[in-house]
Amino acid sequence: MKLSIMLILLLATCVTACDGQPSSATPPKMARSASPAKAPVPATSRYEVRGLLDPGINNMVAFAFKIPRGWQLHQSFTRAWSGAVPSNVIYISLRSPDKHSSIEYLPEAGYHYVDGPQTRSMNQMAAQYGGMREPGRLAPMPPVAYLKAMLLPQLARTAGGHIRLTGEHAGPVENLGQGRQRATGYVDGVLPSGRPVRLAAMLTSLTNNLNGEVYCNWTANTSVTQSDTDLAATYAYNLATQKSVVLNPVWQQQIQQLTNTGVQSNNAEAQKRYAIQKDLQDYQRKTYSEIAANRSASQDRQSEAFGDYIRGEAKYEDAATGQRVKVADGYSHVYSDRQGTTLSTNVPLDAGQVNWQELQRVETKNY
Do 155 and 199 contact (CB within 8 A), yes or no? Predict the structure, then answer.
């Protein structure tokens, strides 16, 4: 917390120095007969410094920033979770004292996209089998197009009607190196209430090319600026607030540690799911193999039994030894002397008088 307070004090000092009355490098000359001149009093800064508190980490200051002096600040800090990996959901709104102007910074939105021959082929196969759209998968687009496609419909629902566009502006695309780019843009319009509004977006992307497949992860940071008096001046406040952000390194370390722990937990959970899935697949393969083998054996038994029927034969088994023989069908009793000799007859033998063992007819299902 000491470091967080130092950050705010440091930013406050910078803001005061930037916005206050500039001092002259050369001391003013004094008239010989006049009393010493008083030093000029710095003008009150147009901005004041605030800190965004993270309630999930003991209300630590996440970052400090400046806002127009006297404006009302409302902030919301929550987290969304992808398994055990957190993503910050931050909303900040600023309102002027006269309620005629406002600035809203909406939560960051993250997307991913993959394109290439292999991906397109897999997507076609998934579509044939009724595959569902993957959440968060969206091709990157220019900021103005993003505002029209994503933010405008959302605001139209919350604003109570269609927003009439009056202009648009696309900023230059900045190459940040190592596949990273940043682009900005905004659209102007009029709310159903008649208040002018400016929707702005800053899109940051990271693109990699691997084996002919293009992988892109990108984020969208959007803001809504409204003013009944001077939209351009209010938007200038918006930009000044964004440029003034100073992150707390201690908070960054905490977030990085939280993320690393979450990634490890997700990986461990993924390995468990993989092992369970592998066991299930192995069980399914074994079961399907047994079913196929049983079906094939059943077909073989039926085929053999049908062949015996056509040839007028039947299969008999010695219950003691399990040995089987085929003999002419149509007799009531079949005996064996266990020396390879069989006797088929309709007259039962007295087992006590002869050393013959009666065989049992094998049913078709047991062939």
Answer: yes
Question: How many CA atoms does the CB half-sphere of 258 hold within 13 Å?
Answer: 17
pTM over 0.70: no
Residue with tokens 């001149």: 37
Average of per-residue pLDDT across 72-94: 94
Please tell me the distance from the alpha carbon of residue 161 to that of residue 153, in angstroms, as a whole number.
Answer: 10
Q: What is the mean pLDDT of residues 327-334?
A: 88
Can you give the length of the chain in residues?
367
Q: DSSP label at 25?
A: S
Do residues 331 and 345 touch, judged by C-beta distance below 8 A? yes
Asked whether 199 and 151 are in contact (CB, 8 A), the reply is yes
Token digits of residue 304: 């053999």
Share of the chain above pLDDT 90, in %: 47
pLDDT in the model for residue 22: 36
CA atoms within a 13 Å half-sphere pointing along the CA-CB vector of 233: 9
